[in-house]
Each structure stands twice: as structure tokens, then as C-alpha cells.
Design goal:
- This protein has one domain.
- The strands form two sheets. The protein has a two-stranded antiparallel ribbon. A two-stranded antiparallel sheet has the order 2-3.
- The chain is globular, with a radius of gyration of 18 Å.
- The protein contains four helices and four strands.
Length: about 130
């Protein structure tokens, strides 16, 4: 057996690289989550309840959706000053078992929607209702 390969045939160097990336990304994820938590607090509980109701309505449609679809479902609700609070609402809905990230069967990453739904050059994450 080649000394650079593990039992599953994965290159040891690739495994080391993945571990290095994980060590770098952990603090980034912590900072990101802290910002989402602050946005949730700033949005207020009344707005959060309206956002969760809109997520529930959109998810009931049975098709994958983005946060833009949720904003449209909220209608004229101007929302919080920090528009990224919608991310906190999506996370809360996922924790409550209402929705889940739509994951690619081939690669295991969260699916995104390109095209007109792009947000400042970033693809929009796709979500779907959880099946009972």
C-alpha cells in the first residue's frame, strides 16, 4: 500500500488540507453566527414571529425557495433595519423543524439558485419544507 494513501484511498495530503481549512473556518463560523444572533436580537420578537409565519407559508408551497421568496411573502413588512435578520429567521425555522437546507445528492453541499435571484453576486441558498 502506498504510504500517501489511507485505507479508503483518500490522499493523506488532501485529508490534512481539509483539516487545515476546518481549523481556519471555525473562528469565521463563530463570528458569522455571532452576527446572526445580534441581528435576531435587533429584529425583535414580533418581527421574528411574522418572518416565521411567512417562512411557513412559503414552505407549504412544496417547492424550493430562497429568502427573497420569504421577503415577498411578507409583503409590505419593511422588516428590521438589518436585513440580514432573515438569516436568523431561517436558522430558527430550521431548528424548529419547519425547513431544511436543500442539499445536493451528489456533493452534499447546500444547493443555490443562480440568475436573477443572486444577491450582490452571491448565489441564494435554497431551502425546502421538512417532510413530516
Amino acid at each position: 500500500m502506498n504510504s500517501g494513501m489511507d485505507l479508503f484511498g483518500m490522499c493523506v495530503e488532501v485529508a490534512r488540507s481539509q483539516a487545515a481549512v476546518a481549523r481556519i473556518m471555525d473562528p469565521v463560523r463563530e463570528v458569522r453566527q455571532a452576527a446572526i444572533d445580534r441581528a435576531e436580537v435587533g429584529a425583535g420578537s414580533a418581527w421574528m414571529e411574522r418572518a416565521l409565519a411567512a417562512i411557513r407559508r412559503v414552505a407549504a408551497g412544496g417547492v424550493p425557495f430562497t429568502t427573497n421568496d420569504v421577503w415577498r411573502a411578507m409583503g409590505d413588512d419593511t422588516g428590521p433595519r438589518e436585513r440580514r435578520a432573515i438569516g436568523a429567521a431561517m436558522q430558527k425555522a430550521a431548528r424548529l423543524g419547519m425547513i431544511r437546507a436543500r442539499v445536493c445528492d451528489r456533493c452534499g453541499h447546500q444547493e443555490t439558485r443562480d440568475g436573477p435571484e443572486r444577491n450582490h453576486g452571491r448565489p441564494m441558498a435554497l431551502w425546502e419544507a421538512c417532510r413530516p
